[in-house]
Amino acid sequence: MGFGLFVPEFKSAFSLSSTAVGLISGLGFFGFFLGLILAEALLIRAGPRLPVLSGLAAALAGLACVALAQSPASLALGVFLAASSAGFAWTPFNDPVHRKIRDQDRPSALARISTGTSLGIALAGLVGIGTVWLDLHWRAGWAVFAGAAAAALVINAFGLRDIDMAPRVDHGLDWRDLLRARAHPLFAMALVFGIVSGIYIAFAADHFWNRGGLDGVPTAITPGLVFVFFGLFGLSGLLTGNVKDRLGLPWLLRGLMLCGAVSLILVAAAAGTWIGLIASAGLQGIFVMMTSAVLALWSERLFPDAPALSFTTTLLAVATGNMLGPVTAGWVSDTFSPEVMLIGAAILPALAAGLLRKRHAVERP
User: What proportion of the chain, given as a percentage, has pLDDT over 70?
Assistant: First the structure.
């Protein structure tokens, strides 16, 4: 997230093209992918504390590396390490929910875990705005991020001391058992979600900046505003369980995919307006946070005997999309135009919404 927030500064400081931005973003999401695999292995053997602390240590190292980066290579290394932290931490935080929380309370608990990210995104946006208003270098913002990671590492080191360290059991199921036909729509939606969110995170804030920002505020704070509204609207993820109960999973997924599509279209078509920025960032925040909660709930309902393993597999599909989306989008943006890239990317979730059928969104094996 922080990489996308500061892409305009990185492009200037390191002479990056959109293709290079896409490659660095894709490398970061590859770190997320590897973190998921390593977290699964650590979770099985040692419980949730070790992967969470490993992820926070990687976050601290990566954020500090970016703050000190002197070349595109060191920038990419820092982004890779920092992004791996999400892979290390996400499933270990969900795991105790599956083992400790009653079935009727799990949807709200899972939604709270994934939606907590939205507060971090909004705060990151405020840090970006603060560096502009206080006339600070972008490195100061990343030093703040590194300090936050250090604080989180200390808090979790103490807070997780008494957590149940019993290894997780998935009733003998393995990766191959999860690839049954009824799970294919889940993984397809996860892949689309990863592509769309990866592209938005990497390129949206930079596009708003390049189109001159907004009336009444310095152009340089535009990326920060994108992420503030992204995070604030993302708090809607707390309502995911209630909305799902009212609409049903198929209609909720269709609506979320359309949110993702319209969000990208607004970046391309209304980048110079307040309404365009707020609506685009807000819809993307809803799309990301609610879909994250839906994927956690959907995978857990499909595979109740292997909730953590199934969610890890789902997140691997997300991470695959996260990698492919920015890399492809960067090349398309440089070869054609950012608008072509954004509109082209919006077609994918729109198609997913149109092709989804009620029978696809099953919640039971």
Answer: 94
Query: pLDDT by residue (tens digit) across 91-141?
Result: 887 777 777 777 778 777 777 777 778 999 999 999 999 999 999 999 999
The CB-side HSE value for 206 (13 A sphere, CA atoms) comes to 26
Exposure string over 263-298, b if 16+ CB within 10 A, otherwise e: bbbbbbebbebeebbbbbbbbbbbbbbbbbbbbbbb
Condensed to tens digits (0 to 9), the pLDDT of residues 301-343 reads 888 777 778 888 999 999 999 999 999 999 999 999 999 999 9
| DSSP one-letter string for 280-332 | HHHHHHHHHHHHHHHHHHHHHHH-TTSHHHHHHHHHHHHHHHHHHHHHHHHHH
> In 3-state terms, what secondary structure has residue 124?
helix
Task: Look at residue 58 and give its three-state secondary structure.
Answer: helix
Q: Cα-atom radius of gyration of the chain, to the nearest Å?
A: 19
Let me know the angle formed at the C-alpha of 49 by 48 and 53, rounded to the nearest 5 degrees.
Answer: 120
Domains along the sequence of the chain with CATH: 2-163+175-355 (1.20.1250.20)
Residue with tokens 């990687």: 58
pLDDT digits (tens, 9 = 90+) for 233-290: 999 988 988 899 899 999 999 999 999 999 999 999 999 999 999 999 999 999 999 9
The model's confidence at residue 170, banded by pLDDT at 50, 70 and 90, is low
Looking at this protein, which amino acid is placed at residue 328? T
Neighbours of 204 (CB within 10 A): 28
Cα(158)–Cα(300) distance, integer angstroms: 29
Query: Rounded to 5 degrees, what angle do the CA atoms 127, 153, 160 make?
Result: 130
The DSSP annotation for 227-256 comes to HHHHHHHHGGGGGHHHHHHHH-HHHHHHHH
Residues 304, 170 contacting (CB under 8 angstroms): no
CA dihedral 142, 146, 152, 158 (to 10 degrees): -170
Contact 167, 295 (CB under 8 A): no
One-letter amino acid at 263 equals S
Note whether 260 and 352 are within 8 A (CB). no
The rounded distance, in Å, linking the Cα atoms of 223 and 125 is 7
The encoded tokens of residue 198 equal 């990866």
